[in-house]
Amino acid sequence: MTPFPDLTTPLGGLWHELHRAVTQTLAHNELAQGGLMIAALSALAVYARSLPTQLWTRLKNRYTLTLEVQGDDAAFPWLAAWLAAQPTGRHLRHLGVVTRFNEQMGGQNLTLGTDRDGDDVNVRLVPLSGQVLLRYRGHWLLARPSRQKREGQSGHTLGYAHSLTFRMLAGARGAVPELLREAYDFTAGRADGRVEIHIPYSDSWNLAERRAARPLDTLIYGGTLLDDLHTDLSGFFADREWYAGMGIPYRRGYLLHGPPGNGKSSLVAALAGAFGLNVCVLNLAAPDLSDDRLGSLLNNLPRRSLLLLEDIDAVFLGREPRAPTVKLSFNGLLNALDGVAAGEGRVTFMTTNDLAGLDPALIRPGRADRHLLIGNAGRAQIAGMLRRFWPAWSAQEADALAARLPEGQLSMARVQEYLLERRGDEAAVTRDWSQLAGPTPGPAAGPQGCPTRLKLLAG
Ligand SMILES: Nc1ncnc2c1ncn2[C@@H]1O[C@H](COP(=O)(O)OP(=O)(O)OP(=O)(O)O)[C@@H](O)[C@H]1O
Predict the structure, then answer these.
(1) Given CB 3.0 to 4.6 Å as the disulfide criterion, which of 80, 365, 397, 445 pairs with 440?
(2) How many angstroms separate the Cα of 159 from the Cα of each of 147, 152, 299, 386?
(3) Which of 3-7, 119-123, 125-129, 297-301 is predicted least confidently?
């Protein structure tokens, strides 16, 4: 087949003319010859310059493998914390300071001091970007944390999307599962009795904090509330097959209601510790929580978690949002709680200080199967708390002191605060006792004396 078009056609004739003109020009015109030469050499130079990069990329793709984990994945905190704990992890030079609510970033924990309430003020030094070479089980790993700005529709910064990449020789593939297992054991898998608190991040959850589990017996409630709840929950976890056999959705919902500061949030965290579970805290009033996002979040709940919806009365008045900033619709919430997509095995705790303000649909059985009133402190509870603070006191001494206070008027948080203030001065507890029945001191205290910052998680 001839490389030229057919000369008998008009296009073939045109091509022939063009070819002849170019050949003649190149044969007789030195300027054209020089131009062509320069163009050819330039093209060669460009190709030669890109050759090492191409070669490197080819070699890299052929002989190395990459393990990448995105910041919103559950494995991210495991690997980030593991990396930060490696001796060479400290060689990363681009560090950021984040508060403890970003524990998922790994990094080095620093306690800067204690605040007015005696709580540690913690920050973390976390690697944001850079790369380090480290040796793992005889293999070289190039670890590279990085972050990318996330922008909203109007171009404003929403935050940063973090990711972590490990590059290694292809032969190290067998070490990947071990690496993941070790990172998991180092963090979430540590059987140290800690409870993980997760908060929403985009459509998924981020580990906000790992905290020591509070023993259940440090919480004192009236009657048999604690035992009943524990038994109910144990029964639920043991009954999966029974639910399946009965065709009943395998979910359990609890509504804890009562005045503030009597241990609703603390109870959820303590139960999580007792059952080896974690807590996912969701603020339904968050302005960026739409119906869709709530659905995704509930579908993506980390395994073995209790879902905690705090202060649900603060979101809707009846079925209407309490504030214009609330994006969630009442129906969206109902659907997420028990619609078709509602997660199997989910345990939800809702807390409220205002039962009367809630729409009955939100708390009907199926969404909230058990309603538990957690009221103000009874005398027996106050006596119980006195003996926790002062174990040497006899039951009669504690009962006698508690009997001087009105039944069900004070919050347990108020009693706790009073005792905390006098924990170094036993005599002051009895001496000032009448103050407890009086008005609550301090600007941060609510009507029942619940210090507002004693929530499971702020926000
Ligand atoms: N029943 C209780 N036994 C022991 N301590 C309690 C009890 N109730 C409350 N406290 C103490 O009071 C503090 C506040 O409790 P918590 O935040 O759990 O109350 P709450 O009912 O969830 O309050 P709110 O309705 O304001 O969220 C905690 O530090 C906890 O130690």
Answers:
(1) 445
(2) 10, 9, 23, 46
(3) 3-7
- Compute the distance between CA of residue 357 and CA of residue 252 in angstroms, rounded to an integer: 22
Instruction: Kindly tell me the burial class for residue 388, based on how many C-beta atoms sit within 10 Å of its own C-beta (0-12, 13-18, 19 or more).
Output: middle
Alpha-carbon gap, residue 169 to 186, rounded angstroms: 24
Q: How many CB atoms lie within 10 A of CB 20?
A: 10
> Which residue has a Cα nearest atom 17 of ligand 1?
455
Mean per-residue pLDDT, 286-300: 89
Distance 266 CA to ligand 1 centre (A): 6
CB atoms within 10 A of CB 451: 19
State ipTM: 0.97
Mean pLDDT rounded to a whole number for the chain: 82
Q: Which helix (H) or strand (E) holds 421?
A: helix 412-421
Up-side HSE of residue 443: CA atoms within 13 Å toward CB? 0
Q: What is residue 407's three-state secondary structure?
A: coil
- Is the whole model's pTM more than 0.80, yes or no? no
| Helices of type H across 222-299 | 225-238, 240-246, 264-274, 291-299
**What is the per-residue pLDDT across 196-230, written as a single tens digit (0 to 9) for each?**
888 888 788 877 777 888 899 899 999 899 999 99
pLDDT band of residue 36 (cuts 50, 70, 90) is confident
Neighbouring-strand partners of residue 309: 282, 350
The residue nearest atom 24 of ligand 1, judged by CA position, is 260
Give distance in angstroms: CA of 262 to centre of ligand 1. 4
Q: Are 288 and 261 in contact (CB under 8 A)?
A: no
Pocket of ligand 1 (CB under 6 A): 219-221, 260-266, 351, 353, 412-413, 416, 450, 454-455
CA–CA separation, 369 and 346 (whole Å): 13
Q: Where do the domains of the chain lie?
A: 65-190, 212-373, 379-437
CATH number of 212-373: 3.40.50.300
**CA distance from start to end of the chain:** 77
Q: Which residues contact 11 (CB under 8 A, 6 or more apart)?
A: 5
Q: Name the helix (H) or strand (E) containing 45.
A: helix 30-63
